[in-house]
Amino acid sequence: MNIHEYQAKALFKTYGVAVPRGGVAFTPHEAEQVAKTLGGPVWVVKSQIHAGGRGAGRFQDDPDGKGGVRVVKSVEEVRENAAAMLGHTLVTRQTGAAGREVKRLYIEEGCDIRRELYLGMLIDRATSRITIMASTEGGMEIEEVAEAHPEKILKVSIDPATGIQAYHARRIAFGLGLDGKQVSAAVKFILATYRAFTDLDAAIIEINPLVVTGSGDVIALDAKVNFDDNALFRHAEIESLRDEAEEDPAEREASKHQLNYVKLDGSIGCMVNGAGLAMATMDIIKLYGGEPANFLDVGGGATKERVTAAFKLILADKKVEGILVNIFGGIMRCDIIAEGVVAAARDVAIGVPLVVRLEGTNVALGKQILRDSGLPILSADNLAEAAERIVNAVKEAR
Ligand code: ADP
Ligand code: MG
Fold it and tell me: Which residues bind ATP (predicted)?
């Protein structure tokens, strides 16, 4: 789950992670009020969307105009720019061409930037530890830095048995070329950020840029936090920060049914149990010349209700011209799955070719149920045959 920059900064503040002063605004009038309260002489009006690259982004209706992060020098300009941004669609390199409508703004005090650095923390699957990444190349996307100047990324991995120690933070501070009081400011900052990360069960915290100010303070100018969904049950306060308007409606619907769904651009919908098998299914669809419309893992305990919800989700995508169901009955029995598929197919009018490949426990019974249903379900004995059949069936139906 993602949250907005202003929400992340409010959380940071409670952990003692230094951030500029600011306030959220939903209307130009509120923006003006926040600006007055903050006092000048410089304010920054920042679009709040769940995507980065806002500063360099452009509004759809004003492609030659200013970006989604604007530095201004009067309260009037705060109001004017707020009016020009709220309700308008911002396109950044992370939003895709469709962009995102800006519905909230963060009005922040202007900061006297001396240096722009990068600080990130994430769960590193390779080491099973939290890895801290830092770079002197703040403002740039870390993926680009990794590509062009991998030597400019400093990585420190934290042993969960000891947690973070001051020397870890000092190593980063010195690696970033900080000196004097900047070092102790950075150490305090990094220790506090790590505490927020572990306390809140974050998956990623990215501060880009982390800035050194003219007076030697070290503060977060941007804040992106992603939480581990599996831990949200113990953070009701974070769950309440969810902004559903920023989430994909299909993915939100899927998560209500415990389905792991990611929409893609192709025409062949797939329903699979297990993430690995789902990946393999997408690969083999491509191998036979098709394009998957989605990734969908129905999980190990797929019930009739879940299979029905999955069909509805797949068919809500108007690009879908065929569906491939690929189930390995390990813990689940194939006959139960077949009954679920038949019941769901009766419930939801599936107007496109449907190929079902079953394998595993009670597979013969499962196939029998599909045959006896009288529904136009194409059966397949293996993954290659299933992919070939659905790709051909879609071509023929065109
Ligand atoms: P994004 O990464 O989405 O473009 P940022 O919050 O990083 O958004 O802002 C983009 C740039 O705007 C920053 O790199 C920084 O140069 C500038 N900026 C952001 N907030 C402030 C601020 N409070 N004061 C001065 N400059 C800012
Ligand atoms: Mg940024």
Answer: 46, 53-55, 108, 111, 116
Instruction: Return left, alpha or beta for 163; rule: phi > 0 is left, psi -120 to 50 is alpha, else beta.
Output: left
| Tokens coding 119 | 């600080």
Catalytic residue among 30, 32, 137, 206: 206
The rounded Å distance from CA 359 to ligand 2 centre is 48
Alpha-carbon distance 82 to 59, whole Å? 13
Residue pair 229/258 in contact (Cβ under 8 Å)? The answer is: no
Report the distance separating Cα 312 and Cα 307, nearest Å: 9
Assess if residue 60 is contained within a domain. Answer: yes
Pairing mode, if any, of strands 105-109 and 22-25?
antiparallel
User: Quick one: 42 and 162 in the same domain?
Assistant: no
Nearest CA to ligand 1 atom 19: 221
Task: Determine which residue's CA is closest to atom 5 belonging to ligand 1.
Answer: 222
Predicted TM-score of the model (pTM): 0.83
Q: What is the pLDDT of residues 375-396, one digit of tens each?
A: 999 999 999 999 999 999 999 9
Per-residue DSSP letters for 118-176?
A: EEEEEEETTTTEEEEEEES-TTS-HHHHHHH-GGGEEEEEE-TTT---HHHHHHHHHHT
Q: Assess whether 159 and 103 both reside in one domain.
A: no
Active site residue 151: no
Task: Dig out the tokens for 305 from the structure.
Answer: 């209700």
Q: Domain range spanning residue 356?
A: 249-397
pLDDT digits (tens, 9 = 90+) for 317-339: 999 999 999 998 887 788 888 88
253 & 374 share domain? yes
CB atoms within 10 A of CB 93: 11
Distance CA 39, CA 56 (A): 26
322 in any annotated domain = yes
